Amino acid sequence: MWARPVIGKGSSPNAETLHRIHYLAQFKQRPVTLKQLIDLGMTPTRQALRQEAMFLHKELPVRLSHRVVELERLPFGLAEMPSVRIVRGMYIDSVQEIAALPNPGTEDDEGHRFVTALDQIKRRHSSVVLLMAKGVLELKKSQGPDALKPEVYEFLDRFFMSRIGIRMLIGQHIALHEPPRPGYVGLICERCTPAAVARDAITVAQGLCRLHYGVAPQVVVVGNVDLGFTYVPTHLRHMLIELLKNSMRAIIEFHGPDRDPMPPIKIVLAEGSEDVTIKISDEGGGIARSGMPQIWTYLYTTAQLPSLDFDSPYAQDVQVPFAGLGFGLPISRLYARYFGGELQVISMEGYGTDAYLHLKRLGDTVETLPRKLC
Questions:
Q1: Active-site residue, from 242, 283, 358, 367
Q2: Given the residues 70, 246, 279, 367, the one annotated as active site
Q3: What is the pLDDT of residue 311?
Q4: What CATH number has the domain bearing residue 30?
Q5: CA within 13 Å, CB half, 263
Q6: H or E segment at 164?
Q7: I need a surface site. Which of 154, 177, 353, 363 has the fewest CB within 10 A?
Q8: For this structure, is 246 an active site residue?
């Protein structure tokens, strides 16, 4: 059983710690490629794992420090919101924890102590999406909707893109120390089959939909159901669940929960020379053209705003409600962009919506990182 980590809620880091964090935030973040992660994981020798651990020992504090400094500089009073201060404390604690570890150049340090610390950091940050959502809601409540300026949305894009990258590096390193899974290199599947991931996502989304509405539309998967490519299945699963949740809610609210049968959602799979494309089509009434630019802004939703008054900052991000938070679509686009893909939405008001998920199928794609702070 892991000891519960201490978070920074109400804590006051000393001047030396803050000076170190500001120093680290001056350094450029070093992106990795999917191919580099695969090559290392294919032959995870002790020496290779030690080298990766030493890279992470230097790289993670830099990435975490970038976010601490940016959390300090947030405009419009967002930096002072209680939930945002908790998140800042989490990141400070994680920088301190890594800095306190010796350079993992020996087998014992790399093989146990360092991996244990990474796992604890990953667990500590599991509620960050909910906490940041709560922080933005706190700002909106205290200063009104006009406080949600474009700069706030731009920050959230940078912040969550960085979070995806940090969790990818940490999760990959931890996975390489676990028993190997056939066809996997850590978190990366050498032949990720979108049809199989889609079926899993459908089961999850339908279960959540039934809990919320009592019913759920059917989903059919067509196209190249046999295609496979190198990708991170957990990323794809997250994106598909969010897109399916949006489509299911739209169908039920447009046609009514008593419609029988409900028009099914269609998932179409296609493979090109560069991209694997997944289209999610629904007949949920579509989105007005004037509302299309807003779908990529955080907190934009047509559902009732849920309560985020959870007791513990350790509440998991998987506890995000079925609808009403307005973070699902913009974060899904960030997951797509992380390894060079894209998410596009085309809507026909009065009929339905098509979401196009383009994913790079080339293994040499470089991870997308937020720009360096000015």
A1: 242
A2: 246
A3: 46
A4: 1.20.140.20
A5: 18
A6: helix 150-175
A7: 154
A8: yes
- Structure pTM? 0.88
**Residue among 177, 245, 279, 360 flagged as catalytic:** 245
238 belongs to the catalytic site: yes
Torsion over CA: 125, 127, 129, 131 (sign)? negative
DSSP states of 233-295: HHHHHHHHHHHHHHHHHHHHHHH-TT-SSPPPEEEEEEE-SSEEEEEEEE-S----GGGGGGG
Number of folded domains that form the chain: 2
Mean pLDDT of the 352-366 span: 85
140 catalytic? Reply is no
Rounded distance between C-alpha atoms, residue 347 and residue 130, angstroms: 28
| 355 closest CA partner among 203, 198, 212 | 198
Active site (annotated) includes residue 28: no
**Residue 288, domain member (yes or no):** yes
Pair (230, 340) in one structural domain: yes
